[in-house]
Amino acid sequence: MVLILMGPPGCGKGTQGKRLEERYGIPQLATGDMLREAVKNATPVGLKAKSYMDRGQLVPDEVIVGVMRERMGRKDCAKGFILDGFPRTVGQAEALGGLLKDLNKKIVAAINLDVADEEVVQRLSGRRSCLSCGATYHIAFSPPKKEGRCDKCGTELVQRSDDKEGTIRERLSVYRAQTAPLISFYDRLGLLRNVLGTGSIDGIFNAVCSLIDKEKVQ
Length: 218
Hints:
single chain; alpha/beta; Rossmann fold; five-stranded parallel β-sheet; three-stranded antiparallel β-sheet; about 15% strand
């Protein structure tokens, strides 16, 4: 089973992907996390990707496709996987089709989490991360007990460079121009399923699972 989670940055793909991973027993392949790890480790892919990520622009397709090809071939993906942040362009979607054909796998659904731009800005600009343990917080929705410090390890919390308001708006502009056409792409293939990405996390999760379970029995 292959699931695609779509939607603008900050729509909740990462949060829902983790919960779907637990429910269906297949790994969440979060492109953003994979790229940030590569940047942190200063790998060749990471160094190439960093300049694009810092400006809120999309990493070139050939870099992303190479990363995903390697990851999809690992043993834990044998029963399927959840794609979070890939594909982001029609070109990547077409490349994904070739990768899945080689792996003899099919997409069950491309789930689009729909969230308005202003809510995305509020969600992302308030995020803070711990560089030591990776824990994440939000200054409005889930603040740390001590301002600016991680609850788990006490390390200072930081704002990612791509979570600053100007960069967020650039990311949204890039999304609308280059990624939103994926909605039409998967709609034409009969795979698109829309879910409102606002409300409680549990409510969104239940709506997504209901769609997936319906597709699985067809």
